[in-house]
Amino acid sequence: METIPKTVLIDSFQNLPEQVEVEQVIEQIILLAKTERSRRQLDNGESYTHEKVKDAYQNIRIQ
After folding, report:
1. CA 10 – CA 4 distance, rounded (Å)
2. What is the pLDDT along the chain (63 residues), one digit of tens a residue?
3. Can you give the pLDDT at residue 31?
4. pLDDT of residue 32
5. What is the spatial distance between Cα 29 and Cα 12, in angstroms, rounded to a whole number?
6. Per-residue confidence (pLDDT) for residue 63, from 0 to 100
7. What is d(CA 63, CA 59) in angstroms, rounded to the nearest whole number?
8. For the chain, first and last CA: distance in Å?
9. Cβ neighbours of residue 33 under 8 Å, at least 6 residues apart?
10. Cα separation of 12 and 36, whole Å?
C-alpha cells in the first residue's frame, strides 16, 4: 500500500479550486502516490541510468 505524507496531501489540496470534482481529487492522490513511490525508489537506489536503459533496449532489439 502506498503512503503519502499528510502535509504533502494537504499542500496539494490547497492548490485545488474551491469546487472540485471527486475525479480530480482521486487523480491528484494517484499522482502524489506515484511521485512519492518514485522518490522512494530513487532514495533507495532503485533506478537505472540512461545508459543502462539504452543498453537493455539495444539487447532486446538485437534478439
Report:
1. 10
2. 788 889 999 999 998 999 999 999 999 999 999 999 999 999 999 988 999 999 988 888 776
3. 93
4. 93
5. 9
6. 66
7. 6
8. 36
9. 2, 4
10. 13
Nearest to 12 by CA among 2, 39, 41, 30: 30
Cell readout for 58 is: 539495444
The span from the CA of 44 to the CA of 8, in Å, is 20
Copy the grid coordinates of residue 59: 539487447
Amino acid at site 40? R
Q: Using the structure block, give the residue that is written with the C-alpha cell 532503485.
A: 46
Contact partners, residue 12, CB within 8 Å, separation at least 6: 28, 32
Q: Give the pTM.
A: 0.69
Q: Are 3 and 36 in contact (CB under 8 A)?
A: yes
Angle between helices 22-43 and 6-14 (to 10 degrees): 140
